[in-house]
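Same chain as my last thread, 197 residues:
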Amino acid sequence: MELIEKLKKRRSYREFETETFDIQLLIDAIGAAKYAPSGANKQPWTFCIVKNPEIKKEIRRQAEIAESAFYKKIPLHWQTDLDYLNLTIEKPFLEEAPYLIVVFKQVYQFDSEGNEGKVYYPEMSVGIATGMLITVLTDMGLDLLTYTPSSDGFLTEVLDRPENEKPFIILVVGKGSKNYTLPLVTRKSDEEVIKIY
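reply #2:
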């Protein structure tokens, strides 16, 4: 029940304190998330912890370029749906937070002889592992933001990942800023989302 209450209070921060914490917390959290179920047990994920300020700065620079192009082309109804979150193309949280966890999904793998091997349901498998990671980080008392740049191919280049890995999501992890005003959001009722047959 304690975990359920923590998850109910989880919020997405877009401003972070710059203070750092022991990276071992993230390693331990990923160590739990790697036990997620996956198609044929292929475990098609790679978790990249980014703490280097220069790399975070470059990720922010390229993310803002992608966001600038994105906001120029999205339809009005989409922009309206985002307005209450006060989103802009500026993404300072990518530098402010002490850590980024960039999650990659493997769309194929290599066997011990270097031959290409199949991966089954990588999107679902990595999604489950990411959900488990968010749960563990929340249980640890850390704040985070899930961030998916509209165009994320640059992450492969910046982090020098192999061609079989595609960016899935960035988890911005730290302590939420005490000065940040969380937007007012509501959740659907149990009756709206739970159907018992």
